[in-house]
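Lab channel / #folding
Pinned by the channel admin:
"Please post every new chain as: sequence first, then the C-alpha cells as a reply. Keep commentary short and put observations after the output so the thread stays searchable."

First post following the new format, from NK:
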Amino acid sequence: MAENKTVTFIVTRQDSPDSSPYKETFHVPYKKNMNIISGLMEIQKNPVNAKGEKVSPVQWEMNCLEEVCGACSMVINGTARQSCAALVDQLEQPITIEPMDTFPVVRDLIIDRSRMFDALKRIKAWIPIDGTYDLGPGPRMPEKKRQWAYELSKCMTCGVCLEACPNVNDKSDFIGPAFLSLPRLYNAHPTGEMNKGDRLNALMGDGGITGCGNSQNCVQVCPKGIPLTTSIAAMNRATNIQAFKNFFGSDNSH
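Reply from TO:
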C-alpha cells in the first residue's frame, strides 16, 4: 500500500534573485521515515510537477544531513527549521516549503547568508592564535565553565533564530540573537578573552544589543536548544560594564 502513497509538497520557488516567487506543487512517492530532504531529492530525480509538466529541479542547500551544519534551514509548514530533521510523518499535509524570508533569495530555497557571515566578522567570532607553529597545550578551562560553553558552541549559524526574531528585518540592521550569544562563548575562552573589549564594543554599536526587543522567539525555535536569552542577558550586563570602562578610560581589552 505504501508503494502507491504520495506526499504533496507545495514549494515556493524563485528563478533568480530579481524574479517573483511562485508556488509549485509536487506529488512525491512516500517512503517510511522520509524527511523533507529525501522528498526534495525525489523531486530532483524526477522534476515533474502535479500538472505533469517537466520543470527545473528545485534548488536547495544541504550538507551534513544530521542537524549539525545548519545549511538546510527553510520554512516548513510556516516554521523555520532544519529540513533534514523534519520527518514527513510528523507534518500536516500538504507540506508547504518556503525559503526563510529574512534573507535574500538566490534561487528557490537557496538564500544569501551574507548578513550572518558579516555579523561573525563584526563580533570577531574566532579565537586568535599568534603563529602557525605548535604552541603546546592551551590554557585549561574549569569543567563547570566548559560545560556551559559547550552548550553555546552548538550554534551552527543556521539562521533560524534570525528568521523567528521580529527585530531582524529589512528595516533594521540588528545582527540577530545568535551573534549576541556567540561573544559570550568566545569571551569565556582564556585566549579569546584578550579580545573581549572588541567584541563587547561591537555589540554596543548600531544594530547591536540595543536592537533586541526581548521577544524570546529565538530561544523557542533554536534547533540546538541554546540558552540564547540567558546569553543576551549576560551580554547586557557585560556591555554595561564595558561602557563604564570606556567612559573612565580603563583598559577595554580585559
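NK: The mean pLDDT is 92.
TO: also worth noting, Residues 1 and 127 are 55 Å apart (CA to CA).
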